[in-house]
Design goal:
- With 108 residues, this protein is α/β, with parallel strands linked by helices.
- The chain has a domain of 56 residues: Glutaredoxin (3-Layer(aba) Sandwich).
- It is 11% helix and 20% strand.
- The chain has a two-stranded antiparallel sheet. A two-stranded parallel ribbon has the order 3-4.
- It is globular and about 45 Å long.
Length: 108
């Protein structure tokens, strides 16, 4: 599977040779907070207001990281603020698609 990096499709999404085959997560580049009123978060970094129709989540039910985001969305009661699109379960050579079936919503 490939990965879109700075607008360019990369076939090799992860360099396993340089890490001895281990997965080494890069530091996240997003450090802002989503707060009720848009105020800065606990780190002091800038915030964005939690408001309906501002955020949309794309997930694959086969992805454990996406599963965590769905759990977090539910626990924080954000269903009315963050809409969700579920991609088709089959991941081809170029990733998941927005086909629809019983377990996929397509791109909403």
């Amino acid at each position: 599977m490939g990965l879109l990096v700075d607008g360019t499709w990369q076939d090799q999404w992860y360099d396993t040779k340089s890490t001895g085959g281990r997965f080494v997560r890069k530091d996240a580049s997003f450090r802002n907070w989503i707060t009720e009123d848009g105020a800065v978060g606990p780190s002091g970094e800038g915030g964005f207001a939690a408001e309906a129709d501002r955020y949309h989540l794309y997930v694959s039910l086969a992805c454990p990281w996406a599963h965590r985001t769905l759990i977090f969305r539910k626990l924080k009661k954000l269903e009315n603020l963050i809409s969700v699109s579920v991609v088709h379960h089959f991941m081809g050579a170029e990733g998941w698609t927005f086909e629809t079936d019983d377990a996929a919503t397509g791109d909403l």
